[in-house]
Amino acid sequence: MAEYKVIHGTLVEHKTSDPLAAGTANGTWASGTAMNTARGRMGSASSATSTTHSAYVYGGNTPGGPAKTVNAEQYDGTSWTEQSNVNVGRAALCGGGTLTSAIYAGGEVVNSPYNTDAHEQWDGSSWSESTEINTARRSNVGFGATNTAALIASGYVSAASKLTEQWNGSSWSEVGDQNAAKYARGGTGTVTAGILFGGEDPTTNTETWNGSAWTEVSELNTAGEYRAASGTSTEVIAAGGYPATANTELWNGTSWTEINNISTARYEGGGTGNVSLGILAGGHNGTATITTTEEFTAATISDSIKTDGQVFYRSDTGDFKVSLTAFGTGAWASGGNMSTTRAQASSAGTQTAALVAGGAAPPSSGTVNSEEYNGSAWAEGDNLNNAVRLQCGRGTQTSALSMAGTIQEQNHTMVLLGQKQDTLQIQQEAKLVLEVHQILVEYFLEEKTLVLLILQLQQKNIMVLHGLKLEI
Questions:
Q1: Rounded to two decimals, what is the model's pTM?
Q2: DSSP state of 429
Q3: In angstroms, rounded to a whole number, what is the distance separating the alpha carbons of residues 469 and 173?
Q4: Which residues pair with residue 249 across a beta bridge?
């Protein structure tokens, strides 16, 4: 005889960790191969089309400083390989571009006044000096798609700066200033869409660039200096920061959300890559300049991703679990009262922008009135064309429909023609009037059609009554 578990049983998956929902917000960090040269506050670039973790870092602070390195390395997801050195050793997060087309502009050098206007170009095999930037600075941010289209912003001149310069492949030109003068910021993007965040103080300030002007937007949750950036202006990871922290946040184009932290707290790390395959290399852990590399991978669709209702067994803890999305029970609270008492009305909109229209409003049985709600109080709106109740409403407060329903006439009159006769006939007719009245009441309360009303009158033999007029 077949056993019950054979007929109805199912396999339960064994896991050693709880499943995650797909997406960048549930991405995780993993250890990568350490760099050959410890460094912090370096220039960085990456491959825009790579399907693996890749990065290119150059220059930066060296352990024990104040020396700056000219060393450059490239990462292929497995190992770091030495590349041709930059010409001017310096430190700043002022690089941008790709593995084969990058820039390095401005930065901090060893000798006073410590700012440099040096600008170098990488062609995939060597660095060459090019046209200097207009304003020498350090602790600035640089980014761009290639070495012919780049932007540098913020930095320290003789004080915090809000200057922005744009490179067109042959010369630098000053463009729109930032709103806040800052240095030690993180940032990424292109010449037409960029983002800056954090900076000295430390600060939570965030600004976005649209190709001509900067706009202040929603701020970071955690203030920090020298935060590493991986991604684009509409989706970027901010990792680490000064004072040394493991904090990591995700920008979705509108707001910042805290996500899984990096393993090694640090600041001045080199951030590169995109939000699906990000890289954080080197930096300073609060004690020393390090070589540590971490790789970020966004959660993707696989059997380790959470599906509501998925049953599994945690073999490492002995727990039997089911994955689900838990929702709060919620609670009702009093809102503002409407101006007009009503029932059976149509409605549309949201909790803070609502609309009600029509309905049954005593003492009349229908109303054309409408009201609008702003989350705290109701205000009169435009009236409906017809007094209607029991209708259906859909849409928003500014674009809505009121459909179907029962249109209520304001005055219903039945005229019974003829002449008065004797008292008995009047009494008989009065009885018939009461029967007509009852039929009409039932009609309006039970919403019967006019055809049904006529049929009922015919069944009562009420065709012509004499000398009476009935109004309801």
A1: 0.63
A2: H
A3: 91
A4: 238, 258
What mean pLDDT value characterizes the chain?
A: 84
- Structural tokens at position 366: 């229908």
- Is 428 strand, coil or helix? helix
C-beta separation of 13 from 304 below 8 A: no
Q: Would you state the torsion angle of the CA atoms of residues 381, 383, 384, 389, taken in this order, to the nearest 10 degrees?
A: 80
Region of 352 on the Ramachandran plot (φ > 0 left; ψ -120 to 50 alpha; else beta) = alpha
Q: Is 469 exposed, middle or buried (0-12, 13-18, 19+ CB in 10 A)?
A: exposed
Percent of the chain with pLDDT over 90: 60
Helix or strand holding residue 388 (H, E)? strand 388-389
Which position has the higher pLDDT, 209 or 4? 209
Distances (CA, A) of 185 to 166, 201, 239: 18, 11, 12
Task: Round to whole Å and give the CA distance between 338 and 357.
Answer: 11
Q: Could you tell me the sign of the dihedral formed by the alpha carbons of 170, 175, 181, 182, in that order?
A: negative
pLDDT at 410: 43
Give the long-range contacts of residues 338-342, CB within 8 A, separation 24 or more: 338/371, 338/378, 339/371, 339/378, 339/380, 340/367, 340/369, 340/371, 342/367, 342/369
Determine the Cα–Cα distance for residues 355 and 348; give it in Å rounded to an integer: 5
Q: Mean pLDDT across the stretch 163-176?
A: 97
Q: What is the pLDDT of residue 17?
A: 73
- One-character DSSP codes across 308-364: TT-EEEETTTTEEEE-------------PPPSS--BS-EEEEETTEEEEE--B-TTS
d(CA 148, CA 166): 10
Contact 431, 468 (CB under 8 A): no
Which of the two residues, 413 and 82, has the higher pLDDT score?
Answer: 82
**pLDDT (mean) for 378-397:** 88
Q: What is the pLDDT of residues 183-231, one digit of tens each?
A: 999 999 999 999 999 999 999 999 999 999 999 999 999 999 999 999 9
Q: Are 186 and 238 in contact (CB under 8 A)?
A: yes
E strands along 12-113, which residues?
13-15, 23-31, 43-45, 55-58, 72-75, 80-83, 95-97, 102-105
Residue 342 identity (one-letter amino acid): R
Helices 423-446 and 450-459: crossing angle, nearest 10°?
A: 150
- Rounded CA gap, 42 and 291, in Å? 12
Sign of CA dihedral 89, 159, 289, 269: negative
The answer to whether 158 and 184 have CB atoms below 8 angstroms apart is: no
pLDDT tens column, 347-385: 999 989 999 998 888 876 788 899 999 989 999 999 988
Question: What tokens were used for 245?
Answer: 């922290």
Place of tokens 């932007």: 151
Computed on alpha carbons and rounded to an integer, the radius of gyration of the chain in Å comes to: 37
